[in-house]
Amino acid sequence: MPFSRDSWNAPVGCGRVTRINAVLRHQFQKLTVLFALEMLAIILVFQVFSSVECSLTDSETACRALRGATIRILCVGIGLGLFIWFRPHLRRRLVAAADNPDGEARRWWAVHLIGLGLIFVPWLRADPVSLNAEFQAHLATLLAGAVLAAIGALFLLLPRRDLPGLLREGGAGLALVVLVALLIPDLADALAPLWWAFRGLILTTFYGVAVVLAALGFHVVLSPETATIGTEGFFVEMAGTCSGIEGFALTAGFFAIYSVLMRDTLRLGRFWLIVFPLALLVSWVFNIFRIAALIAIGARLSPELAVNGFHSFAGWLFFTLLALGVIWVVQARPSLHRAAATSRGTGAPAPLREDLNAALIAPFIVFMLSGLLVQSLWQSPALGYPLQAGLMAAALWMFRKPLLALDWRLDPVALMAGLVVGAGWILFSRGGAAPAGLSKLTGAALAGWILCRILGTTLLVPMIEEGFFRGYLLRLLSGPAAWQTALSVAVTSLAFALLHGRVIEAGLAGLVFALVALRRGRLGDAVLAHAVANGLVALTALLTGDWTLI
To answer: Is 488:478 a contact under the CB 8 Å cutoff?
Structure first.
């Protein structure tokens, strides 16, 4: 029996409606918990209780793709959970939509259970050694099972008749959450070099584990030269898999989703400047205890279980629970929230595509994700730039209304600043190899690539990067005090520099763009300066044929 959204506002005295609503709510919660437990069981079976090592299989690429897809599904599932939880009207609509006719429900239950059975068939039939050796033979079974189980679960939670309406109601906000969640594993990959770049991070983690084990009464044997630590015959080498970078990425990703969903009531300054660093610290300390616990398990209980506990899936699972726990604490602290913003005249919030914050964040997410896409699809990623430019243009077009409402008057100071930055970038260029594969393009293909590259570099990238770094981050981190402004400029300039590789030149460019934006409080000035700088560089690249400049 379907219900409209208004049925949730029925008086308590309407006993039959209230009882039916309670039954549907319980049914929806039960299904959600069941599917979450199934996901947990799959992760535990294949990455904790048995060891699937992609490097030992006969299809390493497919294995890593499947593992990566599983991690992304986990992140997207959590992101969607946050979206639904903090959108009560959508949650009520979902619960009401869960009223599946009995015949249809039985059909989707059959599809889901068949898929679940196919997923576990390889584990039931093979020991861990043969799982690795014969992985390619099991791949089709695993993929078919995953698809069937996912389809069955989807239509048990969300009948087909309600899917279009719920997607429309989720709107651009739903798409933004999915994009951020999809990017979390890539953020972890981007942060991974920090483990090796900062020796102090390695040493503090290494000796932190030793202190915890010693406090538990173990005789610790450690070798700092090889980063090896252990006790009672069980030793591990603390490589990048022990870094806990997954925790940093998950915390950053889920915090970003939470801050966007709760932007109307969350005190964003306190959240990002106080809670976020503390959450990273908690994640790092948690990782020390996790490693110490696994070494203790390996020494006293089961070496196999301990070794499997170091695998990436186990880490992702533990750190996901930790990140959600921190969000739960934040949600429960009144000091981190303020009263809800006064609604507009109609009482309805503006669509997300008209929200300025979303307009400053979402195109940057598309920019980063499109870069990863061309890296994956093209052996010579530079050749995929037209696709990346098209996706960036589409993202900016979607949010054109709040972006066009900005002040775009010409500023001579911004114009001159852009010329100086562009000239400096060209002057201090170190040169390098031409983009791989570019020499294969001729005629119209080469002309089209050059046009996309110049337009993307000169128009699209400045708008997207300045919107995120100077429009959103700089404004978010700034405060009334001079030191707060200085700190926000330093942080955003450093982040901008790390994105571009040439740290010193890009850092100075970011500093100039930030000062231009702060001069009159106009994002348009920073975009203009960045566009002029990039335009000068692109023009030089076109005249000289040196595409390494951009």
So the answer is: yes
